[in-house]
Amino acid sequence: MSAALFEPLTLRSLTIPNRVWMSPMDQYSAEASGPKAGVANDWHFAHYASRATGGTGLILVEATAVSAEGRISPADLGIWNDTQVEALRRIAGFLKAHGTVPGIQIGHAGRKAATRRPWEGRGPVGEDGHGWQPVGPSPVAFAEGYPVPTELTTEGIEEIVGQFADAARRALAAGFQVIEVHGAHGYLIGEFLSPHSNRRTDAYGGSFENRTRLALEVVDAVRAVWPEELPVFFRVSATDWLGEQGWTADETVRLAALLREHGVDLLDVSSGGNGGPADIPVGPGYQVPFAARVRAETGLPVAAVGMITESAQAEKIVANGEADAVLLGRELLRDASWARRAARELGAETHTPAPYAWAI
Question: How many CB atoms lie within 10 A of CB 40?
């Protein structure tokens, strides 16, 4: 019996051993201030190492901020200095040594920056919680109780594009082989994409071409410093679930075609996260049709994410050509060895560290 889920996938010159990948999920577990702000620690190492030893083919380290002001919460990881690089190098090295491709997602939180950790409730942390003033495409707050962001100037936008390029250089120095640009979930790049959050009247607002300008500039800046032989991913919210007032699935397909031209190798297709009265039909595989549409209409490889929990479900998505890989989020929090269990259920195999192999 062969399983499509456990066939390797080659992007550029990089071969990923299987199609079971770990979605970037914030751990909110770094120090908030001081010399170790944003630095990965023992928790992060143990968290990612356990999923690698569990047989996961690719691990995308959580949204890692390109600047201190770009963190979602003060406890987020960062990649704006060399101390952070050294800590990340330990993680990337372990993943690679044990058969998992190390990847990292880089991003800027925009108007959703300086917020509380999920288990502490919603909303901004405030100055007492090491908070700061967020920035965004327009002076439009994310939701009631959130601060109105400072509207970015053209010079500010250029600075952030440069920060993404610097983050990509550091990610490469840390040993990562895949880099993902975070353009989803209502964070900065996604805020520029959507007319719900982008009310600008300059070259970065209004038309589709203007609203996608920042995304393409960031991708170009990252691609310029990332090795030609290694892949670049882009995560997108396929829709805001806000109808024509927000970002739409049709626009995602148009953007995907542009991203492919600009050197993106795979689109990580999620949805939502940009506020508003969104009615989201959450259920098993509810975002898979968006990924399948992008793949069918543009030819760009895609990964599907969202309520994928069972091995047969994941196998069907890949075997039917709806996606090239599946990204597991919360299910991998619940079961670090999900990939190995799925391989056993599907009659396939995945990599196993020697100290475990004799028992398996």
Answer: 28
Joined together, the tokens standing for residue 158 give 């250029």
Q: How far is it, in rounded angstroms, from Cα 299 to Cα 253?
A: 10
- Torsion, CA 4, CA 6, CA 8, CA 9, rounded to 10: 60
CA dist., res. 122 & res. 68, Å (int): 20
Return the axis-axis angle of helices 154-173 and 82-97, rounded to nearest 10°: 40
Using alpha carbons, list the distances in angstroms from residue 284 to 75, 106, 307, 313: 30, 27, 5, 9
Confidence band for 1, pLDDT divided at 50, 70 and 90: low
N-to-C CA span, the chain:
19
Q: Would you please indicate which residues are annotated as catalytic (active-site) residues?
A: 187
Whole-model pTM?
Answer: 0.98
The span from the CA of 15 to the CA of 64, in Å, is 24
Q: Can you tell me the mean pLDDT for 32-40?
A: 97
